[in-house]
Design brief:
The protein is 65% helix and 8% strand. The chain has six helices and three strands. The longest helix is centred in the N-terminal third of the chain and has 30 residues. The chain is globular and about 60 Å long. It is mainly α. It starts with a helix and ends in a 13-residue tail after the last helix. A three-stranded antiparallel beta sheet has the order 1-3-2. The chain has three domains: 32 residues; 88 residues, Winged helix-like DNA-binding domain superfamily/Winged helix DNA-binding domain (Arc Repressor Mutant, subunit A, Orthogonal Bundle), CATH 1.10.10.10; 31 residues.
Length: 161
C-alpha cells in the first residue's frame, strides 16, 4: 500500500468518525430540546424559506417522500405548543403549505444558539491562526468535492453513474 492509499484510508476513517460522532451529538442535543434531527431540519428549511414552504418542497430538499415528510410535519404540529401549522395552498388546492409558528421559530433559535455556544467553546480552545488554517483546508476540500463531483437532483454524483 502506497502513501496515497494510506492517506485515503486514513481520511475516510477520520471523516466517518467525525460524521458518526457529529450525528450522535446532534441527536442528543436535539433530544434535549424535544426534537429529532429530521424535525429540526424541517424547522431550519422553513426558516430559510421565510417561514412558509410547500410540504413537497421540504421533502425534496431532504430527499424524503411526501408521505414521510407529512409524518414529520404532523408530529411537529402535534407538539404542545405546535411548532408548525399546515394550510391548504391558496394558489393550488391540492398542495399543502407548512408554516412556522412563533413557538417553532423560538425553538429553532434556542437550538441554533445553544449549538453556536458549543462551537464557540470548542473554537476558543484553538489559536486563531490554527482555526483559520483549518477552516481554509476544510473549505478547500469542500470546494474541490462539490466542483469535481456535483450532486445531481437524484442524489448521485457523476462518479456514481
Amino acid at each position: 500500500m502506497d502513501d496515497l492509499d494510506r492517506d485515503i484510508l486514513s481520511f475516510w476513517g477520520l471523516l466517518f468518525e467525525i460524521v458518526a460522532d457529529f450525528e450522535k451529538r446532534l441527536a442528543a442535543h436535539m433530544a434535549a430540546h424535544d426534537l429529532t434531527p429530521p424535525q429540526f431540519y424541517v424547522l431550519k428549511t422553513l426558516m430559510e424559506q421565510g417561514g412558509r414552504c410547500r410540504i413537497g418542497e421540504i421533502a425534496r430538499e431532504h430527499h424524503l417522500t411526501n408521505a414521510t415528510m407529512t409524518g414529520l410535519v404532523k408530529r411537529l404540529e402535534a407538539l404542545d405548543p405546535p411548532l408548525v401549522q399546515r394550510d391548504q395552498s391558496a394558489d393550488d388546492k391540492r398542495a399543502v403549505d407548512v408554516s412556522l409558528t412563533a413557538a417553532g421559530q423560538q425553538r429553532f433559535w434556542d437550538i441554533q444558539n445553544s449549538l453556536m455556544t458549543q462551537v464557540r467553546a470548542l473554537f476558543e480552545l484553538v489559536p486563531a491562526d490554527e482555526r483559520r488554517e483549518s477552516l481554509a483546508k476544510v473549505r478547500e476540500y469542500f470546494d474541490l468535492l462539490t466542483n469535481l463531483f456535483p450532486m445531481e437532483s437524484n442524489g448521485k454524483t457523476p462518479i456514481d453513474v
